[in-house]
Amino acid sequence: MRTERTLASGVAIPFAIVTLIWGSTWFAIRDQLGVVPAAWSVAYRFFIAAAGMFLLAHMRSLPLKLDREGLIFAFWLGLTQFMLNYYFVYLAEEFLTSGIVALLYALLIIPNSLLALHFFGERLSRSFLIGSAIALAGVALLLLHEYRASRVSPDMVLLGIGYSFIGILAASISNVMQGAHVARRLPMITLLAWSMLIGAGMDAAVALIVDGPPVADGRPGYWIGLLYLALAGSVATFPLYFRLIQVIGAGRAAYVNVLVPVLAMLLSTAFEGYSWSALPAAGAVLALLGMIIALRAKARS
């Protein structure tokens, strides 16, 4: 009995921490926009996060170096996860509420599964396809409401949706990369540290080309938010989430991605003035229900 309780608390506590932190990071990103261009904010975040991850690797007596194959893998992971993915997340939140972007990203399981089908031959069950269709229908209702009610022009809403889907595709590629043999043999924290550092360098290069020299925001809130995103939203949560996957499996751990947009939508309602009506409410219910069906089907398979 004691062992079961210990195991339950060892799962529930990190699950709650990851959900609460990741649910709030979507709102924190919103405050990073404005004075500092998106690419520079992403670069600052992951330079700090990389330093924190290297420190964590050192504290755990993990190797700090990668071999040639590991560095090549870290390059591609940095490009997809910590450059393209997050850069387009920040751009998307300039035009969409943080809760909507979070809900779009919760659909990652769909492109993940399609790419896994293509590269690894993983089959898709009928229940998974039904759940995915329900979730997509719900998201379509939410986006329709966003298109009608947004304070920016409809073209800007479509641009935000487009940015979101580019980021989702990049994130999905980085997720499927974890199935590669090289990802399994490398210490995850060391790999993340190098990937974040490489991704931050790419973000800085894009920022220099597109936005010019580094820009600073004098508000204390900006830098507090930046540290929160880098240390809590990146360094603290990634190891916890991967530990969850080891303990309860990827299928059940993925339920974090259902709860995160719920919290993000609540924060968006409270602080961003997101307005609810029958259309977005129905869309949110359908999206979450569909994701639960798809995740249960994925976990069974």
* Proportion of strand residues: under 5%
Helix content: over 70%
Number of strands: 0
Biggest sheet details = none
Radius of gyration: 19 Å
Number of helices: 13
H-E string: HHHHHHHHHHHHH
The count of domains is 1
Q: Low-confidence spans: pLDDT under 50, at least 5 residues? A: none
Derived from helix and strand composition plus strand pairing, the structural class reads mainly alpha
Distance between the termini: 29 Å
Q: Averaging pLDDT over every residue, what do you get?
A: 84
How would you describe what is shown here?
It is a single chain. This protein has helices spanning 2-32, 38-59, 68-92, 98-105, 109-120, 126-149, 154-177, 181-185, 188-211, 220-248, 250-253, 256-271, 278-300. The chain has 301 residues and is mostly helical. It has one domain. α2 crosses α3 and α4 runs antiparallel to α12 (256-271). The radius of gyration is 19 Å and the shape is globular. The mean pLDDT is 84.
List keywords for this structure.
mainly alpha; 13 helices; about 300 residues
Give the topology.
Blueprint: H1 2-32, H2 38-59, H3 68-92, H4 98-105, H5 109-120, H6 126-149, H7 154-177, H8 181-185, H9 188-211, H10 220-248, H11 250-253, H12 256-271, H13 278-300
Helix pairs in contact: 1-4, 1-10, 1-12, 2-3, 2-9, 2-10, 3-7, 3-9, 4-12, 5-7, 6-7, 6-13
